[in-house]
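Today's session is about reading a structure prediction critically. Students often jump straight to the picture, but the first step is always the sequence itself: look for stretches that repeat, for charged clusters, for runs of hydrophobic residues. Only then move on to the predicted structure, which in these notes is written as discrete structure tokens rather than atom positions. Here is the chain we will use throughout the hour.
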Amino acid sequence: METGNHSGASQFLLRGLSDDPALQPLLFGLFLSMYLVTMTGNLLIILAVSTDPHLHTPMYFFLSNLSFVDICFTSTTVPKMLVNIQAQSKDISYTGCLTQMFFFMIFVGVDNFLLTVMAYDRFVAICHPLHYMVIMNPRTCVLLVLMCWFIIFWFALLHVLLVAQLTFCAGTEIPHFFCELAQIIKVACSDTLFMTICMYVIVAPLGVIPLTGILYSYSHIISSLMKMSSSTSKQKAFSTCGSHLCVVSLFYGTSLGVYLSSAMTHSLEKSTVASVMYTVVTPMLNPFIYSMRNKDVKGALGKLLSRAASCPM
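Below is the predicted structure for this chain, in token form.
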């Protein structure tokens, strides 16, 4: 196999989920359905929050941002995979691969940070209810979201610039269905020690710090709930935190599964299945978790669908 610099590697090959031609129509139908459900569910959450005045609060502002990021998160990987299945091709251009990796890192990072901001929002609401509207004012909420985007943008850009310095062999195959940073580093032909160190040094804090913030927030929330004498107040607090905890557990459980499966097993199939849970299933389930466990969201969605059904064709 001929080796050249990155400009010589005009394209990569994505191995995909399966090489079996008989499975391709099934995979196409399955992932198209999941993608459409993800888009519809998250769009409904955004529309419900934007049209219902009762949901114009910090908690639902962050929720609508999470839904927007989930739409973008899924859209970075699934459409390209569907095109490749339909065209019976595995090609992705060098520029397209780096672009996909860049946006994937941005959206997964912002998703992670937004979950931390939402935990902080619940912490202020339950532990400091009298100061909630002062602390979580509109300006602060917007700044928190912008800060998430700003930090992750530079993190993703740094990694793309570092990957651009690597050399690749002609016809390099990436053993995945999308361009993931760790997999791209593995298939590089040049020395990747510095890049690997940078990846872990930068990625570790960006994973540990948000998770620490979530655990810190919920430790204080649980402590405050234990001190509440009213069972009604406890139930209301649990209902507002329950959906978020489910989403956090799903996000960190599946993402941790990806890296554990990559580190502990050499099976590409197991690692790929874990990645599907992380990148496709989680964004699809988030709207259902919030709509089923939250009466306010459920009511807003009901009103939205009723208005849509009553509109003349």
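Discussion point for the tutorial: The longest helix spans residues 193-227.
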